[in-house]
Amino acid sequence: MSRKRILSILLILILIASLAVSVFAEGGNGDGSGGGKNVPLGLAESSVPDGSNNVPTDVTITLTFNKNVVNFTVKDNNMTCFSLSDSRGNNIPVTVLMGDDQIDPDIKRIVNIKPSSLAEGETYALTISGKLTAKSGAVLGNDVILHFSTVAPAATPTPSATPTPAVTAGPAATATASPSQIVSASPSASPSPSAKAEKKEKAKGTAKIKEKEKKSSSLVMEDTDDGEDVTPSRNHNQPVAVYVILGLILLGVLIYFVISRKTIKRILSNRPQK
Predict the structure, then answer these.
(1) What is the dihedral sign for C-alpha 247, 249, 250, 256?
(2) Is residue 44 within a helix (H) or strand (E), and if so which, with residue range?
(3) Please, what is the average pLDDT of the chain?
(4) Distance CA 224, CA 218 (A)
(5) Adjacency order of strands within the sheet including 123-128
(6) CB neighbourhood size of 88 (10 A)
(7) Which residue has the higher pLDDT, 213 or 27?
(8) Alpha-carbon distance 126 to 61, whole Å?
(9) Distance between CA atoms of 136 and 57, rounded to whole angstroms?
(10) Is the dihedral of CA 45, 50, 51, 53 positive or negative?
(11) 3-class secondary structure, 98
């Protein structure tokens, strides 16, 4: 192979390499930041946009920029460019998460912000410092602030109060309640004096009713003459039987005497006279 041919091949290879470098530079805009050499650094997207509501308290906010902000040349500076505060101005600690663009180039523009703790129903402000710097040297310039509110706390159901029926206490009053009425009292509540008096009156009335029932049941088996308990059948049937037996005995005696007199008269009438 002649020298001219070798030089021609080398020249062609150099031209091809130059063209490839030129095309690659145009595709990446030549600054290695992935955002263009003449494009200023800015926030392209946020998973929690400014003015968001009902944000979960365990949220992780993902920020996507238009340039490489995680490269080791700017990473240390950029880790300090994120802060979070609540509505009273209190600082909320956050964890800033950045990947390694040398291992995974796809994450070179992504920064994740993980708050330590968020309260329900609170408003927060995430501040991105204007000192945030891209790999190309571009600076954010002005602070970017994202406001958002967390989800409101769940409403606690209020227990419904059970109405307690009014009870009027009196000497002869008897408290009555239907089965559907339920009177509830707390364990620590002590009965009032009126409730105690009503309870005593009720106990006395119950005792009187029981005593009356006992007396009325005993009157069924009580004899009105001598006060002794007798069986109803003995009280009426025994004298009748005695009277019947005595009557039969007397009747027998009378019959006996009648027959005896007739016999004596007949005998005397049949005796011969002297």
Answers:
(1) positive
(2) strand 43-46
(3) 76
(4) 12
(5) 52-55, 144-150, 123-128, 82-86, 91-92
(6) 7
(7) 213
(8) 10
(9) 35
(10) positive
(11) strand
CA distances from 91 to 80, 88, 115, 117, 205 (A): 14, 9, 11, 11, 73
In this structure, which amino acid lies at residue 62?
Answer: T
Burial state string for 181-194 with b = 16 or more CB within 10 A and e = fewer than 16: eeeeeeeeeeeeee
- 55 backbone dihedrals φ, ψ, rounded to 5°: -80, 130
Task: Enumerate the H helices of the chain as residue ranges.
Answer: 3-28, 75-78, 193-219, 232-270
Contact 87, 141 (CB under 8 A): no
pLDDT digits (tens, 9 = 90+) for 93-142: 999 999 999 999 999 999 999 999 999 999 999 999 999 999 999 999 99
* Residues 6+ away with beta carbon under 8 Å from 112: 60, 61, 62, 63, 96, 97, 98
Question: What digits encode the pLDDT tens for the residues 43-94?
Answer: 999 999 999 999 999 999 999 999 999 999 999 999 999 999 999 999 999 9
194 or 223, greater pLDDT: 194
DSSP 123-153: EEEEEE-TT-B-TTS-B--S-EEEEEEEPPP
Q: Strand 52-55 vs strand 144-150: parallel, antiparallel, or unpaired?
A: parallel
What are the pLDDT digits (tens) for 37-53? 678 999 999 999 999 99
Phi, psi values for residue 204, rounded to 5°: -65, -45
The listed range with the strongest mean pLDDT (8-12, 35-39, 114-118, 236-240) is 114-118
Tokens for 261, please give them.
């007199």
